[in-house]
């Protein structure tokens, strides 16, 4: 029975100190914030100014085309690793991670494969042999594999690709199991486009990932390509990333670019700066977001003008390798944030339910600062002999009248503006007033 609710808020001060990030390589800024910043590259261009920037500014490389099926297995059972080896060797020489892209896709397949006539059993074997060969060759050298790329239709159903049509959804599970066997250390990703917002396609991906995990399929991460249109960063991007992360997988932005109608105006470039910053912020706000990869770092190496005539300027550097406002947007968003001083939070305490001798209370902590909280503790004094008997979503201990509640591993991180709630049951007699004050502190 709810007989009343008490509400009390303690608000403490916030502190944040952004530092200058102008001259620090983007890869270092990203690493200091716990994510990687990567780029797709064209292996043949990795010399001169292009190579200098790719090596110095990015912590992860994705071969734009060199690891695709048509590139590595141009004839059945005959492999050509020249292009892929070049990118991997460059990454190793520059202390960079590699995102392998991609083992199973419906596009950029060799003619012998698409033109052949195969039974489902033959196709399955061709697929698993290919995965075993490619993931096996780069065992221990590729950090993340896009094991299956673009498996879904726009409505979230299975795409009737060469693979989906012949084998149904089971090809995805088989692909992941083969990749895990070939390279147990690599993080295995499902990757798709137009899944960035909450919507039909991402709902389909969400349900697919859930089904795969329930079957014990080794899916480690979900990639969101994020080929975006100027001014249209989805408002639900962060929420969407977070709901996947809560399934127990990593998430990553894998192919970010933001296109506009050419010629680019100053206003459009300013909007693009804000858009890049918004995508970076969404990743930073989600603890399991591993990193952000731009799909080409210079406008001279972007797929957009070829595929969307009249559009382009989609990357952070212009065609002459000069940084654009988008570059500053990334750097400013990744700028170091001094850890918040203790107390950058507010707390509310509410008795939601009360009966003879017992009550339930909910305590909600809000991060009122501009930096993420990494761990928290809330303390209060029970004023009338109340005792905590059972708690959830926090470790709650009571000594005399003093109560201390601290985070659990899964709710330690609270993004700026975010809240985390925990609750407890307590006993009371006589009266059940709320605490006079609650304090919160940050840190693990
Ligand atoms: O290699 C040939 C070259 O020999 C020929 O002279 C030239 C003439 O057009 O074409 C070259 O092949 C091109 C290939 O890129 C390598 O540069 C293809 O025409 C071109 O279609 C191909 O485009 C790639 C595209 O995937 C194909 O789907 C883009 O570079 C690549 O950035 C793009 O990447 C995809 C991701 O893999 C998956 N997500 C979407 C993303 C954008 O489409």
CATH level-four homologous superfamily name of the largest domain: Glycosidases
Low-confidence stretches: 1-21
Write down the overall mean pLDDT.
92
Supply the number of helical segments. Answer: 13
SS content category: alpha/beta
Q: What topology, given as strand order, has the largest sheet?
A: 2-3-4-5-6-7-9-10
Ligands bound, unique: ligand G3I
Shape: globular
List keywords for this structure.
CBD2, binds ligand G3I, EC 3.2.1.8, 444 residues, globular, CBM2_carb-bd_dom_sf, alpha/beta, 2 domains, TIM Barrel, disordered N terminus, 21 strands, eight-stranded parallel β-barrel, five-stranded antiparallel sheet, single chain, signal, Immunoglobulin-like
Description of the molecule:
The chain is α/β, with parallel strands linked by helices and 444 residues long. It folds into two domains: 21-334, Glycosidases (TIM Barrel, Alpha-Beta Barrel), CATH 3.20.20.80; 345-442, Immunoglobulin-like, CATH 2.60.40. The chain has helices spanning 26-32, 48-57, 69-72, 82-93, 111-114, 120-137, 162-167, 170-182, 200-214, 237-245, 266-285, 304-307, 325-334; strands spanning 7-11, 36-41, 60-63, 97-104, 144-149, 187-192, 221-224, 227-229, 250-261, 289-294, 311-312, 345-355, 358-367, 373-374, 376-381, 387-392, 395-399, 402-406, 413-414, 419-427, 438-442. Strands 2-3-4-5-6-7-9-10 form an eight-stranded parallel beta barrel, surrounded by six helices. A five-stranded antiparallel β-sheet has the order 1-12-13-20-16, with no helix packed on it. α6 packs parallel to α8. The model is unreliable at 1-21 (pLDDT under 50). Ligand G3I binds at residues 64-65, 107-108, 149, 193, 225, 255, 303. Residues 20-333 form the GH10 domain. It catalyses: Endohydrolysis of (1->4)-beta-D-xylosidic linkages in xylans. Residues 1-21 form the signal peptide. Its EC number is 3.2.1.8.
């Amino acid at each position: 029975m709810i007989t009343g609710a008490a509400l009390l808020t303690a608000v403490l001060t916030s502190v944040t100190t952004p530092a200058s990030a102008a001259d620090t390589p983007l890869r270092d800024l990203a690493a200091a914030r716990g994510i990687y910043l990567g780029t797709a590259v064209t292996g043949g261009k990795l010399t001169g100014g292009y190579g200098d920037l790719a090596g110095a500014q990015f912590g992860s490389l994705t071969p734009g085309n060199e690891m695709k099926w048509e590139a590595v297995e141009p004839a059945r059972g005959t492999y050509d690793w020249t292009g892929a080896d070049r990118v991997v060797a460059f990454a190793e020489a520059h202390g960079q991670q590699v995102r392998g892209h991609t083992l199973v896709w419906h596009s950029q397949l060799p003619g012998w494969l698409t033109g052949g006539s195969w039974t489902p059993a033959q196709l399955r074997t061709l697929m698993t042999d290919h995965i075993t060969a490619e993931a096996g060759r780069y065992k221990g050298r590729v950090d993340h594999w896009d094991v299956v790329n673009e498996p879904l239709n726009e409505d979230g159903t299975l795409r009737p690709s060469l693979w989906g049509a012949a084998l149904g959804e089971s090809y995805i599970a088989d692909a992941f199991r083969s990749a895990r066997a070939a390279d147990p250390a690599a993080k295995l990703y499902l990757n798709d486009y137009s899944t960035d917002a909450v919507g039909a396609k991402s709902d389909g991906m969400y349900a697919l990932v859930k089904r795969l995990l329930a079957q014990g399929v080794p899916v480690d991460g979900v990639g969101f390509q994020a080929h975006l249109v100027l001014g249209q960063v989805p408002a639900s991007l962060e929420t969407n990333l977070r709901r996947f992360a809560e399934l127990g997988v990593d998430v990553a932005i894998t192919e970010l670019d933001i296109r506009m109608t050419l010629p680019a105006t100053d206003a459009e470039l300013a909007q693009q700066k804000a858009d890049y910053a918004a995508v970076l912020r969404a990743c930073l706000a989600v603890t399991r977001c591993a990193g952000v990869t731009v799909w080409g770092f210079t406008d001279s190496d972007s797929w957009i003008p070829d595929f969307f005539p009249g559009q382009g300027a989609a990357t952070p550097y212009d065609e002459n390798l000069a940084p654009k406002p988008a570059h500053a947007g990334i750097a400013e968003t990744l700028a170091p944030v001094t850890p918040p001083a203790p107390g950058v939070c507010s707390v509310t305490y509410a008795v939601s339910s009360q009966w003879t001798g017992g009550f339930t209370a909910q305590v909600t902590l809000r991060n009122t600062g501009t930096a993420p909280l990494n761990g928290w503790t809330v303390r209060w004094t029970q004023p009338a002999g109340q005792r905590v008997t059972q708690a959830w979503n926090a470790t709650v201990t009571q000594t005399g009248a003093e109560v201390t509640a601290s985070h659990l591993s899964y709710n330690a991180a609270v993004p700026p503006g975010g809240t985390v709630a925990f609750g407890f049951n307590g006993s009371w007699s006589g009266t059940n007033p709320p605490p006079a004050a609650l304090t919160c502190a940050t840190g693990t």
